[in-house]
Amino acid sequence: MIEVCEGDITRLEVDAIVNAANSSLLGGGGVDGAIHRAAGPELREYNRGLGGCPTGEARISPGFRLPARHVISTVGPVWRGGGHGEPELLASAYRNSFELALAHGLRSIAFPAISTGVYGYPLEAATRIAVSVMRCYEDRFERIIACCYDAETAAVYRRVLDEIRDCSEGGE
Ligand code: AR6
Fold this sequence. Notes:
Blueprint: E1 2-6, E2 16-20, H1 30-39, H2 41-48, E3 58-62, E4 70-74, H3 86-103, E5 108-111, H4 123-137, E6 143-148, H5 151-163
Parallel strand pairs: 1-6, 2-4, 2-5, 5-6
Antiparallel strand pairs: 3-4
Helix pairs in contact: 3-4, 4-5
């Protein structure tokens, strides 16, 4: 079951919220800033011990002051025109976040629209990759939430979820 929610990911009571982080894992703007503010300084302190995260990989932390039990930080690609491995790296960011959640026995997970803000990935293309990977994991989770911060993103997710109904691991 994949749900589209419109609003602030930091409010969700789920096993894990995914953070669209940068490779330092120490905080930034956008959803990353919101998650660090809501989790408290403990998240930054904890993440300092993780030693960063390469693009396409994921790391797990406790949720600290968040209603979510864990934060899974992943680093999406910066959009550089599409010919620099961006689709594969974005698919890996989603896939590695799901795999980490499964390895920790988590059953509910919420994602922001990774890379579509500061990192500039075109929304439609990014959503098609996100949904393609989500379809591969929907049977293994109770809840998968696409947490969209604005109405335009939510509308694109709803339409793409209608169009893409099967798993295609690499994106498409
Ligand atoms: N809840 C849900 N979604 C949100 C929230 C929120 N509270 N706030 C923003 N968004 P971005 P990126 C949406 O820029 O493109 C940071 O500085 C936002 O509207 O947060 O992966 C990091 O440190 C957009 O749809 O992430 C990195 O340096 C989506 O989240 C860099 O930005 C992603 O936008 C990562 O850039």
